[in-house]
Write a structure and sequence with these properties.
CATH topology of the largest domain: Alpha-lytic protease prodomain-like
Distance between the termini: 59 Å
CATH class of the largest domain: Mainly Alpha
Helix content: 55-70%
Shape: rod-shaped
Order of helices and strands: HHHHHHHEEHEHEEHE
CATH superfamily of the largest domain: Cation efflux protein transmembrane domain
Number of domains: 3
Mean pLDDT: 81
Number of strands: 6
Length: 366
């Protein structure tokens, strides 16, 4: 798919940029004595790991559904997000602990001025990555890419904190570099926990947000032939939406007409929500959401109706349709033109006397 190819391409670009930045920041942190730059190097390293995991997840997630994965492989993207979130959060905790210990022991060194240039380069590169990734994510409506783009923006903001900290350290606020490192650690922890939380929600099969749910509900209800809607259920897998719904239609529609209504409802929602991967619509003749008694066995009723009609009129029905509803079953029967009115009346009474029968409609080609 085009969106998967675009996702892999921009992710590879992000991985290359993060590899270069990690090297520059690490070398600059050591050469110019900046803990904040070293912290940002660790941040960029986690970004590189994130890009690798995202790339692998996109490749695996793009695989078609198979016997073992009937809903596709997008769950790999969710697992990837969870892993990335944990790595980022752990890195943040380590930075916070390191910076806090150095601040407490007052063991800091004022960084040299070239460290500012490294921080400035990082800000520009990260903001550029954010814009490029978000552009691809919006063009293809790719949820995982959009999350990765937001991650790049977080990186740019943390690099701004590093830049300010370095500037403060060079102009008399000697602990500014460590404070900046502490801020980076907090941003890492926050970003990691947010990714873990969102991935956890998806793994627990939480439904879509209320706005998307409302859109789906209204589109289905506005479909011609749909009288009501109940049991609309949703879940997300790798940023894709899977849903099922029960629609109520006129109780005496044909199977083919109910099937056509369901297809139109699915098409409407699919067109409006590009992230919708699958929607299953179950057609109901009435609301069976709560405390609805079990319907009688339609096959047994059909056998009994055919027997009662044959025993009474001596003929078999040409066509027989049953409308099975909670309040009772309506029988629609087409009889032979050879059956006279008296026989039709007797046959109708015989069928009406059966269990679960509420009404009998006899049609004759005469």
């Amino acid at each position: 798919m085009d969106q998967d190819r675009a996702a892999r391409r921009i992710t590879l670009t992000g991985g290359f940029v993060n590899l270069v930045l990690t090297s520059i920041q690490a070398v600059g942190g050591v050469l110019f004595g900046s803990v904040a730059l070293l912290a940002d190097a660790l941040h960029s390293l986690t970004d590189l790991v994130s890009d690798i995991v995202v790339y692998m997840a996109v490749r695996l997630g793009a695989a078609e559904a198979d016997e073992n994965h009937p809903y596709g492989h997008r769950r790999f993207e969710t697992l990837a997000s969870l892993a990335v979130g944990v790595v980022i959060a752990v890195a943040g905790v380590m930075l916070i602990i390191e910076a806090a210990e150095r601040l407490q022991s007052q063991s800091w060194v004022s960084p040299e001025q070239p460290a500012l240039a490294v921080a400035a380069i990082t800000i520009v590169a990260k903001e550029g990555l954010f814009r490029a990734t978000m552009r691809v994510a919006n063009r293809h409506d790719h949820a995982l890419l959009r999350a990765n783009a937001v991650h790049h923006r977080t990186d740019a903001l943390s690099s701004i904190a590093v830049f300010i900290g370095l500037l403060a350290s060079m102009y008399g606020f000697s602990s500014g570099d460590l404070v900046a490192a502490l801020v980076v650690g907090l941003l890492l922890l926050r970003a990691g926990l947010r990714i873990v939380w969102e991935a956890g929600l998806e793994l627990s099969e939480a439904g879509v947000d209320s706005e998307t749910y409302t859109v789906m509900r209204e589109l289905i209800l506005e479909t011609g032939g749909v009288e009501d809607l109940h049991l609309l259920k949703t879940k997300t897998v790798g940023g894709r939406i899977f849903a099922e719904a029960h629609v109520q239609v006129h109780p005496k529609l044909s199977v083919t007409q109910g099937h056509e209504i369901a297809h139109r409802a699915v098409d409407r929602v699919m067109e409006a929500l590009p992230l919708l991967q699958d929607l299953t619509v179950h057609v109901d003749p009435e609301d069976d959401q709560e405390d609805a008694p079990a319907l009688p066995n339609g096959y047994d009723i059909e056998v009994a109706v055919r027997k009662a009609w044959k025993d009474t009129t001596g003929t078999n029905p040409i066509e027989l349709t049953l409308h099975l509803l909670v309040q009772g079953t309506t029988v629609v029967l087409v009889c032979s033109s050879e059956v006279n009115d008296d026989a039709i009346s007797s046959g109708r009474d015989a069928v009406l006397g059966l269990d679960h029968i509420e009404d009998v409609q006899v049609l004759s080609p005469r």
